[in-house]
Design brief:
About 40% of the residues lie in helices and about 20% in strands. It is of the alpha/beta class. Helix 1 crosses helix 6 and helix 4 runs parallel beside helix 5. The model has no long low-confidence stretch (mean pLDDT about 95).
Amino acid sequence: MNKVLITGAGSGLGKELALVYSENNEVILIGRNKEKLDRVKEIIEKNGGKACAISLDITKANHIDDVLRIVENKYKSINTLVNCAGVGYFGPFKNIKDENINTMIDVNVKGTIMMTRKFIPIVKEKIINIISTAGLKGKPNEAVYVASKFAIRGFSESLQNEYKDEKLKITAVYMGGMNTPFWDGKSYIKDKSRLKSAKEVAKQIFISDDGRKEIVI
């Protein structure tokens, strides 16, 4: 059975990706909140699937090293790495707090890059970077968030060129806002119900996951 590792798998799109990929893969659930990961693992196992839950803060390189050793010892290699973990803070640029800027860069940019660099030696087939349409077009009140997503767009495109003659495939996923806990506590989106569900987007990503360079939803 193929092994798929998904970051940010405790809630939102990461959770829904874990559920849909678990239909024919063993899923390695990665996230900061072990309790949430265990709940997703329980759902997968009740549905007859296989999953492993490992807590990890992707902003800490030494934590990534520890988890890499765990995954290597248990599985030797994985087929797919899905970089889904992300965070966003919105509003007028002049009001953005220093700690929020640092968090977005640490999670969205450095976390994705470090996960990829450390795990790439054991990834056999593909890396999927969940980016969002914020990586395609600038948006008001999202300056730093967009900057972080443009960074991962450039990172993904560069890896596509670097690995173009190898078996490893790199896919960049660009999707719009979703009705997920990502927006909890924020007034930026007034009506989440008009957004696509994370389950719907996850299914579209899964269906489109055929080795293409870009998936735009």
